[in-house]
């Protein structure tokens, strides 16, 4: 949306009091996200009263899910566009209250779609697919993102090539279901083929490519072999397992079991030496008994995951699990979530202790978000915006620069944090300048990161 507005000549600002038109992009995946979206809409509506804003536009998933309610209950909103009307953002901001539906009902951007990066210049996301066909009972995404559909192979490669040419050092492939990439084109192991092609893109400096959100039963041997084969494909697997009890997984309509997952994790580690594995689980799914939760705890102990996220079950009224009996109380959910994270904290502490004294490549991010006295960086085993950072408290050689890849000697470890010394750089040019072709990803230095 930002790219289309900028291409049309509109000036973007992060300051709502300076804007003529306010656009709120929303989420409606779970209750806290819906509440945050609504609170932000009401907050922005105030700028129509006290600021210069004349128009308030609401976009995104909340619109797809609650279009009628928004139009009826929030008169402050001048226009709404859903996730499949994104290409009409310019018309809506310029005065059309009721945009037409998308031609085919489903939106999917491509390599020539105007883009404006909201990330720092050194990393970017590329969405390779949209929608999902899995029937997970806890998830409402297919209801407003639609059926699974992949971007064209050469479209993804073209966008990645341009981003690398602009100085991006790390590309993260995303989608609701990345591991099904290419299946709708008849491609077998489409994601593996795409990763191999992206790894072959020539760049003046080292690059990282990772993908996120692997569906467990779609992690093939070919995919693992491809990651192991190419140095620029980071040794990192993000595979949300959601639970380990066969009974809970069956009610989630995901299948498998903790034993099956342990065998899969063993195969991943055997194929990709040094791989970091991240997963996430849901605490308090309807019907989750004490015994099933204990089974999950035992699995987390056995799996020894490198990163772990635990989410409280959210009872969404349009989800399949909403009708299930045996709802778990909020206090029990919270206690279970805390217990799982307590188990993982000990695992993380032990793994981090083994990192002391090691020298690892890192991507320098910039000054620490916590203090201007420290810098922060990420190892390839840390995905941006989710896995934290490595703190730099000493520098050998030249001063670090954002986007620089350097070696770091780890000197301290804590439960989740690592601290180290940045070693001298071996790179000549940190961020080579590159001309920006028209109507592709651009990254304005004036716009701060969100």
Portion in helices = 25-40%
Q: Helix count, per DSSP?
A: 12
Overall number of structural domains? 3
Instruction: Characterize the quaternary organization of these chains.
Output: single chain
Whole-angstrom Rg: 23 Å
Give the strand tally: 18
Average pLDDT rating: 92
Shape: globular
| CATH homologous superfamily annotation of the largest domain | tm_1862 like domain
Which parts are unreliable, with pLDDT below 50 for 5 consecutive residues or more? 429-450
> Largest beta sheet, briefly?
5 strands, mixed, barrel
What series of H and E elements makes up the topology? HEHEHEHEEEHEHEHEHEHHEHEHEEEEEE
Beginning-to-end CA distance, first to last residue = 15 Å
Strand content: 15-25%
Strand order of the largest sheet: 13-14-15-17-16
SS class: alpha/beta
State the CATH architecture of the largest domain.
Alpha-Beta Horseshoe
Assign the CATH topology of the largest domain. Answer: pyruvate-formate lyase- activating enzyme
Q: Identify the CATH class of the largest domain.
A: Alpha Beta
Topology:
Elements: H1 2-7, E1 21-26, H2 31-50, E2 55-60, H3 61-73, E3 79-81, H4 89-93, E4 115-116, E5 123-127, E6 129-130, H5 141-145, E7 149-150, H6 153-165, E8 170-174, H7 190-199, E9 208-211, H8 221-229, E10 236-238, H9 246-251, H10 258-271, E11 276-283, H11 290-303, E12 307-312, H12 330-353, E13 359-367, E14 375-379, E15 390-395, E16 405-413, E17 418-422, E18 441-442
Parallel strand pairs: 1-2, 2-3, 4-18, 5-8, 8-9, 10-11, 11-12, 15-17
Antiparallel strand pairs: 6-7, 13-14, 13-16, 14-15, 16-17
Helix pairs in contact: 7-8, 10-11, 11-12
């Amino acid at each position: 949306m930002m790219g289309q507005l900028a291409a049309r000549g509109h000036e973007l600002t992060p300051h709502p009091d300076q804007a003529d038109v306010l656009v709120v992009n929303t989420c409606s995946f779970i209750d806290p996200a819906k509440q945050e979206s609504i609170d932000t809409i009401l907050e922005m509506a105030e700028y129509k009263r006290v600021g210069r804003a004349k128009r308030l536009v609401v976009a995104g998933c909340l619109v797809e899910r609650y279009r009628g309610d928004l139009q009826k209950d929030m008169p402050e909103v001048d226009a709404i566009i859903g996730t499949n009307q994104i290409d009409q953002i310019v018309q809506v901001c310029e005065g059309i209250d009721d945009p037409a539906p998308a031609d085919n009902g489903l939106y999917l951007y491509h390599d020539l779609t105007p883009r404006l990066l909201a990330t720092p210049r050194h990393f970017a996301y590329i969405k390779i697919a949209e929608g999902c066909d899995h029937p997970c009972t806890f998830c409402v995404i297919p209801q407003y993102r639609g059926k699974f559909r992949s971007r064209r192979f050469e479209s993804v490669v073209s966008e990645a090539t341009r981003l690398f040419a602009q100085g991006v050092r790390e590309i993260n492939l995303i989608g609701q279901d990345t591991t099904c990439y290419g299946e709708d084109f008849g491609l077998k192991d489409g994601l593996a083929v795409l990763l191999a092609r992206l790894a072959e893109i020539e760049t003046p400096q080292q690059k990282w490519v990772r993908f996120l959100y692997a569906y467990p039963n779609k992690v093939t041997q070919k995919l693992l072999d491809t990651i192991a084969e190419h140095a620029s494909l980071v040794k990192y697997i993000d595979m949300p397992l959601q639970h380990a009890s066969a009974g809970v997984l069956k009610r989630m309509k995901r299948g498998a079991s903790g034993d099956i997952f342990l065998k899969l994790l063993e195969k991943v580690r055997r194929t990709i030496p040094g791989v970091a594995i991240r997963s996430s689980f849901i605490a308090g799914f309807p019907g989750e008994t004490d015994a099933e939760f204990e089974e999950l705890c035992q699995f987390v102990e056995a799996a020894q995951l490198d990163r772990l996220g635990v989410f409280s079950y959210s009872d969404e009224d349009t989800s399949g699990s909403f009708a299930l009996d045996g709802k778990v109380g909020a206090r029990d959910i919270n206690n279970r979530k805390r217990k799982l994270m307590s188990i993982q904290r000990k695992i993380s502490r032990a793994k981090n202790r083994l990192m002391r004294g090691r020298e690892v490549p890192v991507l320098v991010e910039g000054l620490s978000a916590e203090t201007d006295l420290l810098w922060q960086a990420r190892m390839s085993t840390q995905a941006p915006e989710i896995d934290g950072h490595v703190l730099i408290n000493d520098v050998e050689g030249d001063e670090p620069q954002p986007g620089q890849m350097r070696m770091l000697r780890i000197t301290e470890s804590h439960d989740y944090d690592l601290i180290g010394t940045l070693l001298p750089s071996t790179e000549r040019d940190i961020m080579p300048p590159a001309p920006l072709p028209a109507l592709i990803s651009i990254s304005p230095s004036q716009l701060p990161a969100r």
